[in-house]
Design goal:
Keywords: DNA-binding, Phosphoprotein, Transcription, Transcription regulation, Two-component regulatory system. A five-stranded parallel β-sheet has the order 2-1-3-6-7, sandwiched between helices. A two-stranded antiparallel ribbon has the order 4-5. It has about 210 residues and is an alpha/beta fold. It has two domains: about 130 residues, 3-Layer(aba) Sandwich (Rossmann fold); about 55 residues, Arc Repressor Mutant, subunit A (Orthogonal Bundle). The protein is built from ten helices and seven strands.
Length: about 210
């Protein structure tokens, strides 16, 4: 039996996600809407797989997954999101998570991903291959980049997995302003995605 904990701050999403596992003989799912409760839950009743929403108030699924793994190293972490999953491929490369799911995937894809994760395998779209190939391409020279303080803050949040809306709340800007700043950052870094920007920021040591 695969024991699953679904972590999401939206009760309706939680209920719908849990219902996916009804009548699935080899899986059992529970839910939790408050990420602050996770450390206690993991220590008392650890689960095999944690299916975590990336965007939650006051935190994000990446940090929640890291907390779980610090308490339960053998835990399997699968993030699911309404954003483009390509933005989070770097987490797979860095072995911080074990799977990625879009909220639009089918029930069959979710079940297959969970079973594969438990078997030590991973299911990802072909776009992941393109992402890995780009990692092997020559990068821009490591010359100093003229990022202003606002852009540095935005880039820091991008590395941490924040969405534009979440970043806007953190630094009191409109999502549109964050988007414009992010476009300028992409131009300076010669990248086109959040994942590439995050990797470049680490490569060039642009963040603390």
């Amino acid at each position: 039996m695969i024991n699953i904990l679904i972590i999401d701050d939206h009760p309706i999403v939680l209920e719908g996600s849990k219902n996916l596992f009804n009548n699935i003989d080899d899986m059992r799912a529970d839910t939790e809407k408050n990420p602050a409760n996770i450390p206690e839950i993991v220590q008392k009743t650890p689960y095999d797989v944690y299916l975590i929403d990336i965007n939650m108030p006051g935190t994000n699924g990446i940090d929640v997954g890291a907390t779980i793994c610090s308490l339960q190293p053998e835990a399997k972490i699968i993030l699911y999101t309404g954003d483009q999953i390509e933005d989070y491929y770097s987490l797979i490369v860095e072995k911080k998570i074990h799977g990625l799911l879009s909220k639009t995937v089918t029930k069959e894809r979710i079940l297959r991903t969970i079973r594969s994760t438990m078997d030590g395998d991973i299911i990802l779209p072909w776009s992941f291959v393109d992402f890995v190939q780009k990692l092997d391409q020559p990068q821009i020279s490591k010359q100093p980049l003229l990022l202003n303080e606002r852009e540095k803050k935005i880039l820091q949040f991008v590395v941490q997995g924040y969405t534009n809306s979440a970043i806007a709340l953190e630094i009191d800007l409109t999502p549109r302003t964050v988007e414009r700043n992010l476009s300028h950052i992409y131009h300076l870094l010669n990248v086109t995605t959040r994942t590439e920007a995050a990797l470049m920021a680490k490569e060039l040591k642009l963040i603390d």
